[in-house]
Design brief:
Length: 219
């Protein structure tokens, strides 16, 4: 049977609707963590850095907030989505494990801090790791898949011995949209507290008009 082809205008219209839906509501279920990894791998291997949140005033504010609760120099730290370690410039801890799924950045990190442990892997997968302090900074809003997001949260709760510090968005920077459809996805963290159980939320420290540090503790 001959399939009739829709006129060009009709096809263009439906294509535009599909595109708009994707931008407005995202297609989170279609994403896979390997797509996110490709983004970061190409970002780092072409000379990119972890971002503005890892340096300058933003870095200072995050360290100030964290040090109100713990002195990391005495603690074992697990840094999830550790990036290029700019956040750690001038800082140290009792023992450090960093996880990042970009092989390029992990390779570079190993040369910067040869005595630290690094895992080149996806934070939503199983790893035999833990830390008195777990950090997950500027990472959750880069996870495009809902499934990976929930797995990462469950892992953070599981890997933390004492404290969990999450820096993420409390408001979408895209207005009514949740995502840029590329590498950023806003989800309200407070709607997933069940996944972080049994950790309790100790405090939310707003940093600017969209970002906040969430402090969790194991009871
Ligand atoms: C914006 S950078 C932040 C780096 C660091 N946490 C900081 O604050 O300086 C986000 C990092 O998360 C990593 N990342 C994103 N999703 C990940 C995942 N599912 N597993 C492991 N690393 C991930 C990226 O490769 C990137 O290095």
């Amino acid at each position: 049977m001959n399939k009739r082809k829709e006129p060009w205008v009709v096809r263009s219209f439906f294509r535009a609707v599909r595109k708009a839906k994707k931008i407005l509501f995202g297609r989170s279920e279609r994403w896979h963590w390997s797509t996110d990894r490709e983004y970061w791998e190409s970002h780092y291997s072409s000379g990119g850095a972890s971002g503005e949140g890892s340096v300058g005033d933003s870095r200072e504010a995050k360290w100030r907030f964290i040090s109100e609760y713990v002195d990391v120099r005495d603690k074992t730290v697990l840094d999830v989505g550790c990036g290029d370690l700019s956040f750690w410039e001038g800082k140290d801890c009792r023992s450090y494990t960093g996880i990042d799924f970009s092989e390029s950045v992990v390779e570079k990190d190993r040369t910067i801090r040869p005595s630290w442990r690094f895992i080149a892997g996806d934070a939503s997968a199983d790893h035999h790791v833990s830390g008195q302090v777990v950090l997950c900074l500027d990472m959750l809003f880069h996870i495009m898949s809902d499934d990976s997001y929930r797995r990462v949260l469950a892992n953070l709760a599981h890997w933390t011995e004492e404290w969990l510090f999450i820096f993420t968005w409390f408001r979408s920077p895209f207005g009514r949209r949740a995502t840029d459809g590329r590498y950023q996805y806003y989800r309200p963290l407070l709607e997933s507290l069940d996944v972080l159980a049994p950790l309790t939320l100790v405090r939310t420290r707003q940093y600017d008009s969209i970002g906040a540090l969430y402090v969790f503790k194991r009871p």
